[in-house]
Structures are given as structure tokens and as C-alpha cells.
Amino acid sequence: MIDTAGSGVQLDANVAGEAKVTGATQSNLLGEFTGRFYQLEQGKHLGANDQNAALVHKTFAEKNDIKPGDKLDITKDGRRVTVTVMGIFSGKGEKPAVLQSDMAENHLITNLAAAQQLTGSQQLTERHISPVNPHQLKSLTDRAKSLPNVDWKNLAWTDNGAVFAGVLQNIAGIQNILTIATICAAAAGLAVLPLVLVFWARGRLHEIGILLSIGTSKGRLSGNSWAELAIIALRLGSVFAAAIGSVASSQISTALTAQTGPNQRTEKTAVQAAPPATYLQAFAFGYVVVLLLAIAAAPRQSCANHDSNF
């Protein structure tokens, strides 16, 4: 075990050799990891399907020459379980340690079944519940508190969403600003694009007149115009929109994360790109708008072409 050097506390021999064992179905959801007190250095986190697996501290692993894949025997009150080291983590606990079992260096994290085998009990000390949709948190809380056969006098329900209230308010404010900006940009585009299409058609009157004079049909000319618009929208509009959107979302996410204080620790994760379906929906909407406006400008283009031939 790692010694509590400098603590000034003389420990009994029966207590000094004990370690802390925590069983979890998903180790990455433990408060030490989500609060960024622990960081996984090697290997992988424990999942719900892992059996007889464990995570150990980096200092403990270095002192005992342990690496991922090695096996450890853990005993408690005559019960014994053998686990395989799946990963190594680093970091310190939230509070200063007095006993060896309180030290992060002597903290062993195992799968839930292994820890229950050591204690000889199937009871849980705590359960973490996370809704898929954060807007369902209130209804989930109400449903949980109304469950029958649950003794809430001996159980405590903790809603850690209040810890992130400041961050959630910032996100809501940014969402409102982006929604207003999107509506304004769309309105400006709808107002300007028809004028652009009309001027674009008028600037090509001579070219259109020559094509009509050699027998090119108006339907083919309209099809060519729509094809050109589609290519411009695909190459320029879509590419620039996707690039600018990715950069803007990354900057906004970084700014929001930077505003979290010491009491609002969050797990550091990479900014994930929007699903491809979201991009496809946005592009499809833009292409439909361009197509409709091109159709609206087509009669003016035809009339202008007809007058030029005369």
C-alpha cells in the first residue's frame, strides 16, 4: 500500500493495510472521474459487461510493478476475488486523506459484482440515474419519488443538476441568440436572393438570346440555370456553412466550458460534430429555397428573353 507520509497519525497495524474498494457498473460515471479528480491514464474504463476487472492508481501500480492485464487478489473477511487490471488512473481525492484507505493511491475500482462478492451483500450504496433527454429530468424525479415500496426516510435523493444551473443558463442564452440570428439571416437571404437571381438573369440576356435563336428550348435553359445554382449552393454555400458552423460551435462550447467554476466541474470531452442527418436537413432546406426562388424568377427571365428576340 502507499503510505500516508507526513500525516502525523500513528495507525494500528490492522487498519494500516486496508484499501478502499468501489464497485461500479460504469467507472467513467463515478464522481471522481466526472469531477475530474481522477483521470484515466492507461487502458479503458469498466463497463457493464466487464467481469472481475479493476482500475488501480498510477502510484500504486508503479510501486507494485502493475500494468494493464495483470491480475490482483483482493481479500476481505475471508472472502477472496481475483480481478484483472483493465486500466490505470491518476489524480487526488477531493478531501485530504488521513487513513490509507482514504488515499486515492490506495483506491481500487472494480466491477460491481466483484465488490459485492467481497462484501457478501447485494446492497447498493448509491445509484446514478441519467435521463437521455435533459428536459425529462423533472418528470424522472417525480416518477422516482412516487415509486411504491421505497423507504425515502432512509434514502436521500440528490439532484446534481443544480450544480450546473449557471452553465445551463448560459447555454439557454446562447441558444436564444443563435435562434434569433438564424431567423434574421434566413430572412435576409430570402429578401436578397430573388434580387440576385433577377440581376443574374438580366446580365445574361445576350447569351440567352443567342441560345434561343439557335433553337435551344426555354426548358433546357431553365434546367441549366437551376443546375448552375445547385452547383454554386453545393460547392460554396454548403462547404462554407459546414466549416463556419463547426468552428463557431467549437468556440462557443469552449467558452461555455471555460465559465465553469470549481463547484461546477465537468468531464473534459471533445466537442462532437452534429449528426450527418442535421447537416443533410439544413442543406435540403437551403436547396429547396433556392429552387423555389429560381422558379419564381423564371417567368421574368422568359419574358425578358422574349422581348430581346423581338
UniProtKB/TrEMBL annotation:
Transmembrane region(s) = 177-201, 226-248, 279-298
Superkingdom of this entry's organism? Answer: Bacteria
Q: Which InterPro entries match?
A: ABC3_permease_C, Lipoprotein-release_system
Name the record gives this protein: ABC transporter permease
Annotated organism of origin: Candidatus Minimicrobia vallesae
Report the sequence similarity comment from the record: Belongs to the ABC-4 integral membrane protein family. LolC/E subfamily.
Q: How does it sit in the membrane?
A: Multi-pass membrane protein
Which BP terms does GO give this entry? lipoprotein localization to outer membrane
Q: Where is the ABC3 transporter permease C-terminal domain?
A: 180-300
- Keywords in alphabetical order, please: Cell membrane, Membrane, Transmembrane, Transmembrane helix
**Location in the cell:** Cell membrane
What cellular component GO annotations does this protein have?
plasma membrane protein complex
